[in-house]
Amino acid sequence: MRFNGEWLAKLSFAEVVRLTRMLTVARLLERNDFAGRFAAQEPISLSELLYPPMQAYDSVAIDADVEIGGTDQLYNLITGRDVMERYGKDPQLVVTYPLLVGVDGVEKMSKSRGNYIGILEPPEEMFGKTMSIPDEALEQWWDLVAGGGEHPAEPMEWKLELARRVTARWHGEDGAAAGEGHFTRVVRRHEAPEEVPEATVSSANGSVYLPAALQQVFGNSGSHWRRQIDQGGVKLNGGTVTSYDVDAASVDGAIVQAGKRLFVRFRCV
Asked: What is the DSSP secondary structure assignment for residue 235, as one 8-state letter?
């Protein structure tokens, strides 16, 4: 593993100028995202235009034989070939792979978009997120993540098998079974999971301010949880919560469900 700070930090301004002379602005604007934004008169920063030549210099610095990337990186990878030749090196081979759409089925999977499944997430979360992908994304996920081949004809069974394979890859067969059991109990039967974590929350004047308590346990902002309560997305022992302030006696020992997959048992102090 190499970090490009090893060589980019050592570049002099003269070397950066030499590198940028190997490309033209017209050529850079041929890239699809630049071309679209330029036509729409949307701003493009100079640092964005510098990204392709600097990535190309990475290939020069390490004498790359092959560079692998998503299909969205094709322009940058080809630029690396051109720049390598200008430095007197054999141009690298380029291999691209399709981009996996996220759980929204629209945008590419990205942590910044929040439409991703983290490989370190617990099996229950991983299984549930896989089950949330839209049916139209099933075929791509099956091919790119599960290896393709025959699959169940019914979409729900197909998705269940996909979720089993995804979860088993990172958590083993036992993890996949636990994830499916949690999904069946919580999402399909609308029951609380077998094991619910506990959290201690503070009460004042005999009541608990639920948005603050949920923020303390699950993160996000107080306004986020107020919206969830307004939309009926928070339940207390199975009943929908309609008020921000809840009687402490009813909260103590109760199971709170926030959304589809978040559960906690509150203890009041």
From this structure: E
